[in-house]
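Section 5: illustrative case.
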């Protein structure tokens, strides 16, 4: 692919691919699993059986494929890496550009419910002048972005997406949002490119001040508050307990795990269904988690139809090759927002701890939406992100 060239892209899954997935899913026998009620031993067999039954009888991939293809999508080459992206131009006279970065086990499609809300607020009763041009890439090795030929860490990925925005798409200024793995990528973009990045919005605290890496239990400062000490201790305990088991395996032995998950749709579903269940906001709505089976299966299908289960696990491990603490004495200088959604996967950091690594101008605690807020609570997520960008734009004029 010629460097910088943008090529139109549409999802067009071959019928044979869908039939192979169906056949493998049909061969799975959920009855053979030991019956242990609930999620104490991992994925609940009853929940997995319900999902696979719905997947085979009621789920319609072609409908979701059409809905995703309603947005313009492209591929582009940056530094020899092919990147898949979605771009939705915003309403209004001069819409700011925002880059949305996903993580694992989601895909670019995790933002599908917020793209129109962000780009065209008038469709939800808002002002079209608040519209944003939305760019959503697939991380290298995830979904429709092929794996890079050489390992890419989170900081290197930040440089990659910066060049995508500025050199390929011609965006002189941009905002960036990141959750899960997308958070450290977004944070490094804001740190390394303050002349182009207008603001940073995250839902996870990835890159931190010197001496306080994620999950270490260290505050990195001589004068921590009691809340900060409690936070790093709770975070360390969370990540070294059962919730951290998957992380250690994917980060250290992805190719041991990959063949089984790539070969079995039901096996991959069991692996990620546990995460969607445990990491979503259990009290987000009056009748339980906001995620639907369609939401979960669509994310699974993105990996399956693009044949990126194995490559995403390898990329997951390689992202961690770059540092996750800032240089001594340095902070992220651009205006930064942190949205502390009620996420069971992470411990909410005190605002004072977040502010040690960045120019924190906005700290919010949304009432609902867990680790996947753009899917679980798209209205809340869109309002939080848009509010931050609108306030930052106003303060800079």
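Designed sequence:
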């Amino acid at each position: 692919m010629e460097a910088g060239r943008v090529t139109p892209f549409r999802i067009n899954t071959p019928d044979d691919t869908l039939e192979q997935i169906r056949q493998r899913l049909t061969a799975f026998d959920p009855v053979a699993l030991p019956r242990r009620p609930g999620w104490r031993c991992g994925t609940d067999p009853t929940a997995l059986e319900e999902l696979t039954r719905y997947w085979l009888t009621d789920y319609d991939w072609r409908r979701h494929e059409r809905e995703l293809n309603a947005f313009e999508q492209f591929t582009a080459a940056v530094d020899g890496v092919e990147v898949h992206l979605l771009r939705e131009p915003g309403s209004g006279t001069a819409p700011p550009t925002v880059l949305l970065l996903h993580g694992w086990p989601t895909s670019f499609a995790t933002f599908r419910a917020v793209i129109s809300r962000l780009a065209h607020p008038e469709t939800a009763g808002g002002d079209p002048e608040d519209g944003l041009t939305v760019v959503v890439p697939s991380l290298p090795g995830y979904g429709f972005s092929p794996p890079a030929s050489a390992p890419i860490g989170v900081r290197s990925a930040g440089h990659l997406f910066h060049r995508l925005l500025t050199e390929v798409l011609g965006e002189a200024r941009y905002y960036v949002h990141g959750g899960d793995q997308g958070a450290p990528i977004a944070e490094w973009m804001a740190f390394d490119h303050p002349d182009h990045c207008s603001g940073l919005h995250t839902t996870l605290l990835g890159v931190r001040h010197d001496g306080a890496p994620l999950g270490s239990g260290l505050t990195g400062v001589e004068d921590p508050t009691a809340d900060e000490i409690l936070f790093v201790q709770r975070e360390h305990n969370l990540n070294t307990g059962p919730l951290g088991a998957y992380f250690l395996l994917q980060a250290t032995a992805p190719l041991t795990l990959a063949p089984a998950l790539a070969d079995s749709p039901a096996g991959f579903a069991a692996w990620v269904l546990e995460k969607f269940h445990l990491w979503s906001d259990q009290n987000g709505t009056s009748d339980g988690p906001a995620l639907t089976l369609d939401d979960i299966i669509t994310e699974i299908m993105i990996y399956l139809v693009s044949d990126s289960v194995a490559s995403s696990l390898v990329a997951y491990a390689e992202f961690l090759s770059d540092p996750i603490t800032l240089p001594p004495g340095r902070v992220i200088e651009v205006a930064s927002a942190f949205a502390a959604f009620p996420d069971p996967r992470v411990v909410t950091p005190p605002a004072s701890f977040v502010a040690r690594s960045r120019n924190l101008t906005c700290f919010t605690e949304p009432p609902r939406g867990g680790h996947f807020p753009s899917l679980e609570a798209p209205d809340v997520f869109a309002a939080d992100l848009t509010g931050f960008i609108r306030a930052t734009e106003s303060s800079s004029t």
